[in-house]
Each structure stands twice: as structure tokens, then as C-alpha cells.
Specification:
The chain is built from 14 helices and four strands. The protein is mainly alpha-helical. Helix 4 runs parallel beside helix 14 and helix 8 crosses helix 9. Bound molecules: adenosine monophosphate (AMP).
């Protein structure tokens, strides 16, 4: 995850909840992709370190366990840069140019100059990130699948050149996160620049205020007019966060009949959301109450990751025959 700002509910349902569950089944490596943040945010790096620590406090709040998983910072394992460099020698530039997100994001983020080598090559840096740990699976959304396809092609090409008797790098497979993207409070794409997200670190009052100002069915100007549930962000949020299914079904039925006001629907959403966020707030406060604890977790995790990375690079240098004794 790139440390480009505060984490919000989208990060929880689209990534963190899944990451926490995967810990029961797999040996997991989760990292703050600070170099990846630079690929688009290179012009202003002032908040990078602060965001990194803040985001990881949220990871822990969401149930990531530094005892069971390796939580680390990409740039504290500089071997990622070395593997990226060696991979870059065998990767034709058109392979990177045809990654769909490359064109899309350059168009979407047109206010930034993304005609940089770093931005073009970021899926290759991702390849180094996962190949470093012989990752068999990477938990990603649909939009990242082409990146993993590229990763497999790159690994295959690299192995073709350099692999001898022993396998060199592992081809990673996607472990698809199926959750559809959570819209912003105003039903637009959730984005920092639109200020339309509920952050995981928002307090109960902030959540209340944000929910009460949420966009609903614009055609429903009075509570006794039948409303539309489908595509209505208040109900999408109920579906995502209100575990009281009966209550949600009752609200939907009454909304469709024009028998419930937006205020009641929203108040119940506030209760549901704060029910989800409150235990997270407590865990967040606990870890932040110990000064330097998040930093310590990340330094320890990075040292652990680095042991694996060093071994991988020994093997890679040997295979590429750039190893001096
Ligand atoms: P980003 O910070 O936008 O790079 O997002 C990092 C990851 O968080 C994404 O790859 C998704 O898995 C997840 N994510 C972010 N925003 C949302 C959202 N609105 N809905 C669902 N998942 C999201």
C-alpha cells in the first residue's frame, strides 16, 4: 500500500480485512510501498514518512499482527532496487507501455507529469517486490491483474536467461479480492482530492457528520416519496458495514415505499459504522500509546524481510554471474 494519505473505509473493505484473514492461512509479507508513492508523488514528499507510520497504525488496528506477518517498509529493504535493476535489463519497454493502467492513470492524473521512467517502470518494481519473497500469491483487485501477468512474463524471461538447475524466481499468481469498489460519500470515486471518504482514524463525531451529509437518492425530495435503493451510497454502505441484515432489509423495504426518512437511515448507518470502527480506534490508540512502537514494528519487520531479500539476491547474483569473491 502506498503511503499517500490517510487510509479510509475503501482500504478496509478492499484490502485490509482480506489481508487480516489471509494471515490464518499463509505466511504473509505486507509492506509500505514508499518508493511506489514516489512514482506519482515525487514533487512533494514531505508527508511520506508520517503517512507510513500512520497507515501502519491503521493496519494494526484492522487486525494485522506483526508477530504473525512481516510488516515492513520497502525502502528499508534496498535489495528491492537491486532486483528491479537486474530485471530491467531483460524487459522490453513496450511490455511496460502496454500495461492498461499506464495509459489510464497518465490521463486521469493529467495535473502531474507522469512521463517519467519511474512511473513507466512501477509494475516492474512491483515484480521485484513480489519475486523477492518467492511469493506464490498476491492479494489484489481486478485492476492489478495485468500487473501480475506482466510479473509472470518478466520472471519467465529472467529465468529463461539465467536459471540453471535450480528454480530462480517464482511466478506469482493473483489472489483476487472480489469486493467491488466502495464509492465516496458523494457517490463519486472515493478520492483524497474529493474529500469524500470516511477515514479509519475518524472519531465517532466525524463519522456522524460525514454520514449525515451523505448523498442519497436525489429524486427523493420528501420522505414520503418512494426512493431508489440500488446505487444509493447510503445503502451500499449499509450492505458493506451493517451486519444487522434484518435492519438493512427493513430500511430498504420502507425506503422503497416512501416510509422512512433519510435521517433514520443515516442514523442507523452511523451506529453500524461506529460499531465497526470503535474496536479499531481502541487498537490504534493502544499501539500509538507506546511511543515509537509502530516504528519499532516496521524496523523489526524490515530486518526480517531483509534476511529473505539477502538470500534471494545471493541466488540472483550467482545466477546472473555478477558475484565477486
Ligand atoms: P490506493 O490507496 O488507492 O492505492 O488503494 C490501495 C488499495 O486499497 C487498492 O488496491 C484497493 O485494494 C483498496 N482500495 C482503495 N480504495 C478503495 C475503495 N474505494 N473501494 C475498495 N477498495 C479500495
Amino acid at each position: 500500500m502506498r503511503p499517500t494519505g490517510k487510509l479510509h473505509l475503501g482500504h478496509l473493505v478492499g484490502a485490509l480485512e482480506n489481508w487480516a484473514t489471509l494471515q490464518d492461512q499463509y505466511e504473509c509479507f505486507y509492506f509500505v510501498a514508499d518508493w511506489h508513492a514516489l512514482t506519482s508523488e515525487y514533487a512533494d514528499t514531505t508527508a511520506l514518512v508520517e503517512n507510513s507510520y500512520d497507515n501502519v497504525a491503521d493496519w494494526i488496528a484492522a487486525g494485522l499482527d506483526p508477530e504473525r506477518s512481516t510488516l515492513f517498509i520497502q525502502s528499508l529493504v534496498p535489495e528491492h532496487a537491486e532486483l528491479f535493476l537486474l530485471l530491467s535489463m531483460v524487459v522490453p519497454i513496450p511490455w511496460l507501455e502496454r500495461v492498461p493502467t499506464y495509459k489510464e492513470q497518465r490521463e486521469q492524473l493529467s495535473e502531474k507529469d507522469l512521463s517519467t521512467l519511474g512511473f513507466l517502470a512501477y509494475p516492474l518494481l512491483q515484480t521485484a517486490d513480489v519475486a523477492m519473497y518467492d511469493a506464490t500469491f498476491v492479494p489484489v483487485g481486478e485492476d492489478q491483474v495485468p500487473h501480475l501477468e506482466l510479473s509472470r512474463e518478466v520472471v519467465r524471461r529472467f529465468n529463461n536467461f539465467y536459471q540453471q538447475a535450480v528454480p530462480l524466481l517464482t511466478e506469482p499468481q493473483p489472489l483476487l479480492t472480489t469486493f467491488a469498489r466502495l464509492p465516496g460519500l458523494d457517490n463519486r470515486k472515493m478520492s483524497k482530492s474529493y474529500r469524500n471518504a470516511i477515514d479509519l482514524s475518524d472519531d465517532a463525531e466525524a463519522v456522524r457528520k460525514k454520514v449525515m451529509s451523505m448523498y442519497t437518492d436525489p429524486k427523493r425530495i420528501r420522505a414520503d416519496i418512494p426512493g431508489t435503493v440500488e446505487g444509493n451510497p447510503v445503502f451500499l454502505y449499509h450492505d458493506a458495514f451493517n451486519s444487522n441484515v434484518e435492519e438493512v432489509e427493513d430500511l430498504k423495504a420502507r425506503y422503497r415505499q416512501g416510509k422512512v426518512g433519510d435521517v433514520e437511515v443515516k442514523k442507523k448507518l452511523v451506529v453500524a459504522l461506529n460499531g465497526v470502527l470503535e474496536p479499531m480506534r481502541q487498537r490504534r490508540a493502544e499501539v500509538l500509546a507506546k511511543p515509537g512502537r509502530v516504528r519499532e514494528i516496521l524496523f523489526e519487520g524490515s530486518a526480517r524481510a531483509r534476511l529473505v531479500a539477502r538470500e534471494t539476491m545471493e541466488r540472483v547474483r550467482e545466477a546472473v554471474r555478477v558475484r565477486y569473491r
